[in-house]
Structure formats: structure tokens, C-alpha cells
Amino acid sequence: MNEDICIVLGDFAENFTFVVQDEIQSYHWNNPQVTLHPFVYYYLNDGEVCHRSLCIISDCLDHSTAAVHCFQKHLTEDVKKTAPFVKKIIYFSDGAGSQYKNKKNFLNVCHHSKDFGLSAEWHFFATSHGKNSCDGVGGCTKRAVSKASLRRPYSDQITSAEDMFRFCSEEIKGISYILVLKE
């Protein structure tokens, strides 16, 4: 790894379904969800390996290549702020055909430099072997939000992407959160 390279691990976490302690029965069948897409990236800074954990929170439940491209925009902006000396991103993800391993994403990689100002390459983990640090970011986020919402039985429950973003940004340390709404 060189100082001008950033290694990015990314994966959709299972959609998060909001929970409410004293919910009425119909809420169980209609409770809203959000998409979580964690990224963990690694880079060298003065010879030391550093990392940063990001988690995209979105009310868009579409797990497509278009969503990945949108999330990459926010990721690359963060990389440029955190490690402005990085010139190339090397992505690692699972091989999900609807999200990463398809002709649309390969085209996105070809245009990555034009779209984001950084060159890129993409590598895929073997099927069902893509467990990595992103799983911890997604799991930590879901657990903390569930616990907090269940401790608020009468008011201030976490029931939207905006609520979740606000809670996570204020209460969860070590992970940076980015809110990406459907619009």
C-alpha cells in the first residue's frame, strides 16, 4: 500500500426496521425501514495505517448500482477531505450482482476518475465470504439505535432516517454518518 492509495471495504447492511417499545399492533406490519451502507477505508499517513468508518443512512430502499454510485460520491468527498494525498481507490465488496458485480458498476469504475477525480479498481470477495469490518459498523449502528428507541417508550422514538442520522451523529463515536435522502 502506498500513500496515494486508499483501500475501501463496502457492503449494504440488511435494511434496518425501526422499533417502538409500545407500538400498536398495526405498526408491526407497516413499520418503516432505512438502508445502511457502511464503508471502512484504510490509508497511509506518514507511514502509519489509518482507517475511517462511514455509514450512509438513506430512506431510499433501492440496493442498486445507482444507489452505490450515489453513495460513492459521498465516500470520495470524505476521502478527499480526510486524506487529500490519495489518488486511487481500491474497492473490495461482495459479488452481489444487483449492486456491485454487473456491467453498470464496471462502467462506473471505468468513469470513476471523471466522476470523482480519483482512479479506481474493484475486487470481489468470493460468494458468501465477504465478511469484513463493514459488518461491525452496520451491526453497531443497528444495535445502538434499537436500544435507544426501545428506551423511549412514550416520546422521541427513532422512526425515520433523519431521526436515526441525528441520533447516530450525536451518540455513536468512531463512526461518521452521512444522510442521503431519496431526493
What does the model show?
The protein has 183 residues and is an alpha/beta fold. The chain has one domain: Nucleotidyltransferase, domain 5 (2-Layer Sandwich). The protein has six helices and seven strands. The model has no long low-confidence stretch (mean pLDDT 90).
Distance between the termini: 37 Å
Examine the secondary-structure arrangement and name the CATH architecture: 2-Layer Sandwich
**Mean pLDDT across all amino acids:** 90
Q: What is the rounded Rg?
A: 17 Å
Based on secondary structure, the structural category is: alpha/beta
Q: How many domains is the backbone divided into?
A: 1
The biggest beta sheet is recorded as: 7 strands, mixed
**Runs with pLDDT <50, length 5+?**
none
CATH class: Alpha Beta
How many β-strands, per DSSP? 7
Helical content (DSSP H or I, runs of 4+): 25-40%
Assign an overall shape. globular
What proportion strand?
25-35%
Per the CATH scheme, the topology name is Nucleotidyltransferase, domain 5
Oligomer: single chain
Helical segment tally? Answer: 6
H/E series: EEHEEHEHHEHHE
Task: List the main descriptive attributes of the protein structure presented here.
183 residues; alpha/beta; Nucleotidyltransferase, domain 5; seven-stranded mixed beta sheet; 6 helices
